[in-house]
């Protein structure tokens, strides 16, 4: 895997190198939301580039001009993996060190390269449906121990199927959008014989460190996707903070699962990193010792990515939060292709823009856990978050920032920030 350089200056962390080139939707004061690609601290305005006569020789980019003018990436995503690959290859060519089309054309360069500081990011996709899985084995086991004890930590189905539930797509927001503390029914004394709830603001507010995939290839109702072809149905990946109101969820989730404890908000990073960019970082998932059904058996053994995932909590508007947890996306028992195969096995149709969440990703050690629920043993002990402060659960004004990146042989591919700041609950 040889490193390639670009004449565009790199960003400080190097997340957005020429090896990455993730897709997103941005706007400026002089233009409506449109498609772009991030490189360094610049955005390639794909609408401007694809419509300029000087770029007519870029067949894939020019051919996708209509979709680049849209306020979401849905149409471009649905054009298929071959088109995505073609556009990415042409961008690597014109952004590489030997290009003259863009590098030496000052007028075109000024038109096409937009400083990130001048851009506002938007949700990259119109999300029709959102399914959240529970594929992070270590998280599922730890939470199971907290709720049911070590002898009954996992439900009998956990190693047989990618367990999931249908979430709420309307409340998914892009990084930087504040999240209001939710209200709901809470059981003030779970140990009491008579279960009488109260209505109040959430007191056990938590984050969940996840990865999410966007669907690009729709399916017909009644059809199913072969697990070994499922990668062709995935446009790319983002970071996901699937916020959780633990106390609201604890009272409501039996017998049908999460509802108001989850539907108030989920935050994603703005740049969709393609599978092509992540390809060099493939690795094997956690071992599943259960004999799984044939429709979930993959020929690709390296079916997940070694994406380093980090979380910080900034307080009172400060941005000096230290990393409180660090884990890897390889801590999944089920891969996204397996999630797609299982999701469609019964005939459920997928649409371009549908989003699949991984579930909370945790390692086995304290500083590898992807939620405060795990770190504080269910809220029973303080956890040091840096800056001389501790938390059991999140407080108003806390800003949770997640990062993700892959690094190998001098090449780095990153996701940027996934950030949300907690606002106080509205008055009852």
Automatic annotation (TrEMBL):
One of its GO terms (biological process) is L-phenylalanine catabolic process. One of its GO terms (molecular function) is fumarylacetoacetase activity. Its EC number is 3.7.1.2. Keywords: Calcium, Hydrolase, Magnesium, Metal-binding, Phenylalanine catabolism, Tyrosine catabolism. Pfam families: FAA_hydrolase, FAA_hydrolase_N. Pathway: Amino-acid degradation; L-phenylalanine degradation; acetoacetate and fumarate from L-phenylalanine: step 6/6. InterPro entries: Fumarylacetoacetase, Fumarylacetoacetase-like_C, Fumarylacetoacetase_C_sf, Fumarylacetoacetase_N, Fumarylacetoacetase_N_sf. Mg(2+) binds at residues 242, 262, 266. Ca(2+) binds at residues 132, 208, 210, 242. Residues 136-420 form the Fumarylacetoacetase-like C-terminal domain. Gene3D superfamilies: Fumarylacetoacetase, N-terminal domain, Fumarylacetoacetase-like, C-terminal domain. Its cofactor is Mg(2+); Ca(2+). Substrate binds at residues 134, 148, 249, 253, 360. It is an enzyme of class 3 (hydrolase). It catalyses: 4-fumarylacetoacetate + H2O = acetoacetate + fumarate + H(+). It comes from the Eukaryota. NCBIfam families: fum_ac_acetase. Belongs to the FAH family. This is Fumarylacetoacetase. It comes from Cordyceps militaris (strain CM01) (Caterpillar fungus).
């Amino acid at each position: 895997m040889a490193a390639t350089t670009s004449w565009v200056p790199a960003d400080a962390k190097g997340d957005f190198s020429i090896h990455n080139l993730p897709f997103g939707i941005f706007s400026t004061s002089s233009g409506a939301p449109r498609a772009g690609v991030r490189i360094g601290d610049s955005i390639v305005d794909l609408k401007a580039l694809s419509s300029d006569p000087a770029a007519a020789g870029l067949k894939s980019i020019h051919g996708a001009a209509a979709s680049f003018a849209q306020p979401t990436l849905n149409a471009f995503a649905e054009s298929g993996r071959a088109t995505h690959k073609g556009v990415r290859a042409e961008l690597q060519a014109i952004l590489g060190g030997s290009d003259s089309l863009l590098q030496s054309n000052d007028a075109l360069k000024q038109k096409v390269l937009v400083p990130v500081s001048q851009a506002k990011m938007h949700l990259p996709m119109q999300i029709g449906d959102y399914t959240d899985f529970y594929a992070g084995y270590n998280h599922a086991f730890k939470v199971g121990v907290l709720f049911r004890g070590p002898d009954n930590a996992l439900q009998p189905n956990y190693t047989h199927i990618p367990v999931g539930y249908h979430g709420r797509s309307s409340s998914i927001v892009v990084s930087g959008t504040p999240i209001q503390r939710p209200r709901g029914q809470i059981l003030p004394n779970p140990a009491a014989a008579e279960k009488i709830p109260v209505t109040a603001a959430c007191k056990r507010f938590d984050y969940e460190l996840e990865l999410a995939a966007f669907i690009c290839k729709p399916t017909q109702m009644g059809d199913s996707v072969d697990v070994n072809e499922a990668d062709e149905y995935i446009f790319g990946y983002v970071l996901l903070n699937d916020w959780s109101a633990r106390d609201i969820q604890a009272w409501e989730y039996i017998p049908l699962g999460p509802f108001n404890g989850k539907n108030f908000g989920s935050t994603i990073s703005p740049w969709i990193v393609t599978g092509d960019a992540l390809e060099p970082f493939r690795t094997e998932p956690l071992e599943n010792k259960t004999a799984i059904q044939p429709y979930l058996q993959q020929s690709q053994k390296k079916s997940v990515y070694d994406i380093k995932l980090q979380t910080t909590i900034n307080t009172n508007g400060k941005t000096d939060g230290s990393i409180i947890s660090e884990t890897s996306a390889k801590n999944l028992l089920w891969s996204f292709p397996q999630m797609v195969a299982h999701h469609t096995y019964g005939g459920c149709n997928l649409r371009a823009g549908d989003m699949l969440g991984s579930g909370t990703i945790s390692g086995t050690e304290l500083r590898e856990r992807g939620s405060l629920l795990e770190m504080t043993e269910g809220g029973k002990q303080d956890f040091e978050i840096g800056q001389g402060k501790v938390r059991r659960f999140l407080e108003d004004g806390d800003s949770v920032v997640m990062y993700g990146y892959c690094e190998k042989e001098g090449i780095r591919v990153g996701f940027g920030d996934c950030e949300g700041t907690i606002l106080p609950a509205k008055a009852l």
